[in-house]
Each structure stands twice: as structure tokens, then as C-alpha cells.
Design brief:
Number of helices: 4
Number of strands: 6
CATH topology: Cytidine Deaminase, domain 2
CATH superfamily: Cytidine Deaminase, domain 2
CATH architecture: 3-Layer(aba) Sandwich
Order of helices and strands: HEEHEEHEEH
Bound molecules: tetrahydrodeoxyuridine
Distance between the termini: 33 Å
Helix content: 25-40%
Structural class: alpha+beta
Length: 128
């Protein structure tokens, strides 16, 4: 499939515009396509108790589940300049749960599979 990454980047930039990041001043927006064709987005939401901050991916995953669930097929997140950002380690784990090894992630070095950005991942299979 010849995926239009620009549409997803634009959605992530739009979500970034809603970020609540008064402490780090580092707004983040995330966007993903779901296998059924819909799109989900999220922005980071910080807190005066710094450690309570929610990454943009947390909101995206909540929206995914709330809107019916499904498998993520394509993902990107961007910083305040609109540049592509690598998801943090914890969020790679969140993405793994809902996209698995084949989820395509747009990175600054091109499109990479989730099992490239989170090799040897722990997942639901390990609990079997
Ligand atoms: N942040 C995200 O939202 N996602 C990431 O993958 C990396 C970090 C947020 C958390 C915090 O609000 C700010 O960026 C600075 O770390």
C-alpha cells in the first residue's frame, strides 16, 4: 500500500496544537491510522506534579480504545516545530500492544517497523 504519510503528519501537527505542556514547553502531537481506516490522535498533557504527565501517545491509545479499538497500522508523532519525533520507550510499549511488530512508524530516518524500534519486545504472548 502506498500510504500518504503527509496526511498523518498533518493530523499529528494539528493534535500538537492542543498540547498542554506549560512545564516542559515541549508540545507533542501523535497520529495513527487504524486497520479499519479511521484515524486517532493525541497530545501530551502535563501536570504540576511533573511525573504525572501524559505523553501524546497515551491520549491516542485512549482514543483508539474508546472509539472501538482495532489494530494500529501507521504511526507518527511530532514536536512543537512539526518535526518527526521518536516515541519514548514507554510509549513504544503502548504502541506495541495495539499495533504489534508490523506497525509502521515514521521516524527521522524513514519508515521503520515497530519490531525495529522495539526489538525483542515484551508483549501479550509472553503472558500465555
Ligand atoms: N512526550 C510525549 O508526549 N511523547 C513522547 O514520546 C516523548 C515525550 C512528552 C512528555 C512531556 O510532556 C514532554 O514531551 C517532554 O518530555
Amino acid at each position: 500500500m502506498n500510504f500518504d504519510w503527509d496526511v498523518l503528519v498533518q493530523a499529528a501537527k494539528k493534535a500538537m496544537g492542543s498540547a498542554y505542556a506549560p512545564y516542559s514547553k515541549f508540545p507533542v502531537g501523535a497520529a495513527a491510522r487504524v486497520a479499519d481506516g479511521r484515524f486517532v490522535t493525541g497530545c501530551n498533557v502535563e501536570n504540576a506534579a511533573y511525573g504525572v504527565a501524559l505523553c501524546a501517545e497515551c491520549g491516542l491509545i485512549s482514543q483508539l480504545v474508546l472509539s472501538g479499538g482495532g489494530r494500529l497500522t501507521h504511526f507518527v508523532c511530532v514536536n512543537g516545530s512539526g518535526d518527526v519525533l521518536m516515541p519514548c520507550g514507554r510509549c513504544r510499549q503502548l504502541l506495541w500492544e495495539h499495533g504489534g511488530a508490523e506497525l509502521e512508524v515514521l521516524t527521522s530516518s524513514g519508515v521503520r517497523r515497530m519490531d525495529e524500534v522495539l526489538p525483542d519486545a515484551f508483549g501479550a504472548d509472553d503472558l500465555a
